[in-house]
Queue: 2 jobs
Job 1
Amino acid sequence: MRERRRVDEVAGRLREGTVQRDEVGALEQRLQEIRASVDAGAQEIDVVITRGHVLIGDWRALYDEVRAFRDAAGPAHVKTILATGELATLTNVARASLVCMMAGADFVKTSTGKEGVNATLPVGLDVAAIIEPAIPRL
């Protein structure tokens, strides 16, 4: 029987009463939520990236944010959610995917499913083209 994993979505939770996704100054709170989730047994952490970093081309800020999430998650897997419908261009999607991988994300996901535009075929192909070279060959 397949082991069931506990998954906590933090750093832009979709539940009421939690941090708004792009709230300035919320990084430390997001990191605390990640640590608390891992301490409570989470084996996978879902984080929605700060799209503002992408939209202004601040790739270092995006890298630092995702690296901080990775470090706070310890042994848990980190899934970065790009919300691609809000990233404006396929170039931004590709760069954000690459930066997230470079910063240590275990998974890159196109969207939360809650945006006005979610994963599209062009976006899916773009993300696949970026992550494909990183997939280990068996």
Note: The chain has one domain: 7-134.
Job 2
Amino acid sequence: MDVNQKYTNLLKEQIDKIGKECRYLEFKSNYQEVDKLGRYISALSNGACLDHQDFAYLYFGVDDDTLAIKGTTFDCAKVKAVGNEALELYLRRMVVPKVNFSIIEFMYEEKERVVLFKIPAAVNEPTTYKQKPYIRVDSHVTDLTPYVDWMRQIYTSQIDWSAQIVEDATIEDLDPEAIRLARAGYKLRYPDFAEAMESWDDTTFLDKAHVTQDGQITRTALLLVGKQEKVYKLHHIAQMVWKCFQDGDVFGDIYTIPYIKATTALMGRIRNYRFKIYPQDSLIPAEVWKYDTRSILEGLHNCIAHQNYLQNSLKENGNTFTSKVRPVKSVARSELRRKAFEPVIDDTIEHITLDVDEMNAKAKEMAQQGLNPTTEELQKKRKYMEAVKKLSSLKRDMETAHEQLASLMGLHPATQFMLVGKEYGNFALPEIKSNLSRLEWLALTNRPELKVHEC
């Protein structure tokens, strides 16, 4: 089906079923001005969220009173906004968060030219234009801020992407070998069901494992046990990219579904070494793997489980699990930051946590009185909680800096040492004229224990 036929059918269906404008559907005869269009994008996106729609639709070329298709001369590519800036670029800058709206031109019944703005629904926060959220109330576009209940509904609107049903997927789209691995893992996790599982067919097992819903294939099912050639049904870049950086060259490979098999295959590509640790109270060195299997798989599985699948680009919005040697200078700087800023971070986390506790106590009192917190209070609480999360993550990174630097220098992790250099507040070291990064690389790759024990 071509674009003209697809969107002609969609417009007919919306006019027949809905029959009028609503919070996620708007008709205009022609373009008017940029600020009005920006407010409509914000209002329709928020309205689609409130009405549980995936998208909102703004048509140009349709009479908003009679719904007659009249066509339009509006051409987004030719219209300029403020300061002679292209209209589309201006709107994408002013609409926050960055909703990936589409501008589609089609010929209605091969007769009338219609322009459609297809706008994704707001998710987890209101869509704003020039830092202000809008909503359609009756036939008017107005400020959303006074409508606290609607604001709260949008802030709590995060959908579970992975639980959605893939309409055109069937059990035949799943990989039998991946399902067999899932069965084996289920038996180990739930030994009480091991005997009963023998009588379950694949459909029953996947339902019991909460991977499918009443026999319907979810996105989770396709991600974990779907056939590789069926990845297109997810409409998502379901990939894990392995890269290796060596001697200035970059090479790698791409792994896709089923993830239950892909993570183990990818782990086999990660270079792992055994190195020696020399305890202070023993003449016998201890050999340990640089990366243990559990840590590698936990990192990969966390990336899969906590991926932001609502975004269709892993490169820009996805999670990254990195396994590589960190330069000594980078680790040393982390150790310096730890000593300098860890007390400050602890105090900051404590103060913010106390503020959040006070907000929770106040919200509880208001709830007992039948009152609701204001939008500003909800936004402030959310920002505070995000700040605590980021600071805690930074603290965890700093806490391991000392051990990482000791390991890179061949010391026992518990060894006490002091960093030397002008930047650390003591005497200056002589200047090294060679390429420091290259020297670090040569030192690490030529350690004898790595060569002897390379696996």
Note: The two ends are 54 Å apart (CA to CA).
